[in-house]
Design goal:
147 residues, alpha+beta, 25% helix, Alpha-Beta Plaits, single chain, five-stranded antiparallel sheet, 5 strands, 3 helices
């Protein structure tokens, strides 16, 4: 049943993290703030009204908390994958595990700030480190190859 005759707008078409997207911005420094990162993304030529693939990045120390982190990210609409961390030792058995949540959305300052607050909350409840977020977008047709 619709509330007050309104239909829910469909979300943006899902982007796939298959190597065809380029990094347009990164919010790894919480002191810098999301507004400055989004300004940089717009200044680089990305249309702010176009959807991007947002990757939320975590390092997980305790595998016991993996299912809780995956469930929490899944509840907020993120597709989740895990892999050995590339930052530490190449032996996955002894090093931390990287957990990546991916979601396609139109990135706004409010959405980015709310997501950072949610992810920081997960960091305080679980044995993990929130590393920040990255925004990826398709290569624009007018752009040449990355150099």
């Amino acid at each position: 049943m619709r509330l007050f005759g309104r239909r829910r707008r469909p979300g943006p078409a899902a982007l796939v993290d298959d190597g065809s997207l380029r990094l347009v911005g990164s919010g790894r420094d919480p002191v810098r703030g999301e507004a400055a990162v989004l300004d940089d993304i717009a200044a680089a030529g990305h249309d702010p009204s176009s959807p991007v693939l947002v990757r939320q990045l975590f390092e997980l120390d305790d595998p016991v908390d993996r299912s809780a982190l995956v469930a929490a990210l899944g509840e907020t609409g993120y597709e989740v994958s895990t892999q050995p961390s590339t930052a530490d030792a190449p032996t996955a058995a002894s090093g931390p595990e990287q957990v990546v949540g991916r979601r396609t959305q139109v990135l706004t300052v409010l959405a980015a700030a709310q997501a950072r607050a949610r992810m920081t909350g997960l960091e305080t409840r679980l044995a993990c480190r929130y590393l920040g977020w990255e925004a990826l977008a398709p290569l624009q047709e007018r752009e040449g190859p990355l150099r």
